[in-house]
Amino acid sequence: IRPQTTGACTACGVCVARCPMGIIHADDPAVVDAGGLRCNACVKSCPEDAKFFDSELTNKVRAMLEAQPTALKEPALFLER
């Protein structure tokens, strides 16, 4: 699965620099070669939120994480006797 690129991409090159595999084309960041790790480095680093993964598995994981409670909880301390 390769990351998709929306029209919001400004070709700034941040995703190109952050890709550990070097598979995103510098002249056109929408072009991504095979061999990606799905590490999300390009997605997380994009200042325009123009990169994303669109697959059934990715969408299921995203939905699961978004459904989880996000409130911070205090740590609990359990002592044994």
Choose one word for the global shape: elongated
Count of runs of 4 or more consecutive helical residues: 3
Largest sheet: 2 strands, antiparallel
Percent of residues in beta strands: under 5%
Strand runs, count? 2
Q: Kindly state the percentage of residues in helix.
A: 25-40%
Radius of gyration: 18 Å
Q: What would you call the quaternary organization?
A: single chain
> Largest beta sheet: what is the strand line-up?
1-2
Distance N terminus to C terminus?
Answer: 51 Å
pLDDT < 50 stretches? none
Compute the average pLDDT.
Answer: 91
Supply the helix-strand structural class: mainly alpha
What sequence of helices (H) and strands (E) makes up the elements?
A: EHHEH
Structural account:
There is one protein chain. With 81 residues, the chain is mostly helical. 27% of the residues lie in helices and 5% in strands. It is built from three helices and two strands; from the N terminus they run E-H-H-E-H. It has helices spanning 14-18, 41-45, 56-67, and strands at residues 4-5, 51-52. It has a two-stranded antiparallel ribbon with strand order 1-2. The mean pLDDT is 91.
